[in-house]
Write a structure and sequence with these properties.
The protein has seven helices and eight strands. The protein is of the alpha/beta class and about 230 residues long. The strands form two sheets. Strands 2-1-6-7-8 form a five-stranded parallel sheet, sandwiched between helices. A three-stranded antiparallel sheet has the order 3-4-5. β6, α5 and β7 form a beta-alpha-beta unit. It is globular. The C terminus is likely disordered.
Length: about 230
């Protein structure tokens, strides 16, 4: 059990600090991933930013995800075309859902960043952080988005996730760091003593504190060789 997201982030930061990443950038999935990401960014002296991901649900069953929308200069929809074909959904059937989720992504970006542009991903080691993973659909979309944005290396860092989910995500990341991989997994919250909801105000507060630490320069780093080995999935 983790006491709370702060402790989970500190333990994860200790593990990541030994990896020797060059020019790391921490990207947290809001809202629960931000307190975890803050501890990592502080320990690594790295910039902290959010990466908002919104599920794209099937028209007849909104809870059934057929893709995800990931933020950026222009939010992009990453769709599971195989599932869409199996369900008999036309691409245009998703247009309204994508429009609504795009508006929500932009609202969150504006709220959390306060009008500041996203931290540059291209050329960096991008460390994607959440407070835990269940199915991994949103995380998968986020990892693919980071690769498309030109990240030099993509690392997934989470306190807890089931082994089968980590296995399915392994092809999407250059390295996965996970502290606990329980076989019996109902929900992320079962592994925390305190798993209270994180508010928008808290997310904004963590991002502001990270900027005050002085690790918020979004300029891309100079090209460097990086030969870190692929970590365990």
């Amino acid at each position: 059990m983790f006491r709370d997201r702060k402790e989970a982030g500190q333990l994860l930061a200790r593990e990541l600090s030994s990896r020797g990443f060059r020019q790391p950038l921490v990207l947290a999935l809001p809202r629960g991933g931000v307190p975890v990401g803050y501890e990592i960014a502080a320990a690594l002296d790295a910039p902290l930013d959010i990466l908002a991901v919104r599920k794209v649900g099937a028209p007849f069953h909104p809870e059934l995800g057929v893709g995800a929308l990931v933020d950026g200069d222009s939010p992009e929809a990453l769709l599971d075309m195989d599932m869409i074909a199996r369900l008999g959904i036309r691409r245009e059937d998703l247009d309204e859902t994508i429009r609504k989720e795009t508006a929500e992504v932009r609202r969150r970006e504006g709220l959390y960043r306060g009008g500041r542009p996203p931290v540059a991903v291209a050329g960096r080691t991008a460390i994607l952080v959440d407070d835990g993973i269940a199915t991994g659909s949103s995380v998968r979309a986020a990892l693919r988005s980071l690769k498309r944005k030109g990240a030099r290396r993509v690392v997934l860092a989470v306190p807890v996730a089931p082994p089968e989910t980590l296995e399915s995500l392994a092809p999407e990341a250059d390295e996965i760091v996970c502290l606990q991989k329980p076989d019996f997994f109902r929900a992320v919250g079962q592994f925390y003593e305190d798993f209270g909801q994180v508010s928008d105000a808290e997310v904004i507060g963590f991002l502001e504190r990270a900027r005050k630490l002085g690790a918020s320069d979004g300029s891309p780093p100079p090209a460097r060789d990086e030969t870190l080995s692929r970590g365990p999935a």
